[in-house]
Model the fold of this input.
Amino acid sequence: MLAGSAANRDSNFEEAANYFRQAVRLQEKAARKDDWALFSALMGLATQLSNQGKYPEADVFFQRADAPNLRFSG
Done:
């Protein structure tokens, strides 16, 4: 997540997407399916894909992050 955020700050959206994709895979294995960390990874990946103009692929991850069990309730 930190490496993805750093790449994003440098406007290296493709590299950032790769880091966030790795984070999603790790969170899916390690986290509960309603975990905030999974939501953050999904949103990070979706944002990077959107930054690259890959809107259909980004939408898939935005929708996954919008699942009722992942919505932030804080």
Summary: The radius of gyration is 12 Å. The mean pLDDT is 89. Helices lie at 2-9, 13-30, 36-51, 55-65. Residues 13-30 form the longest helix (18 residues).
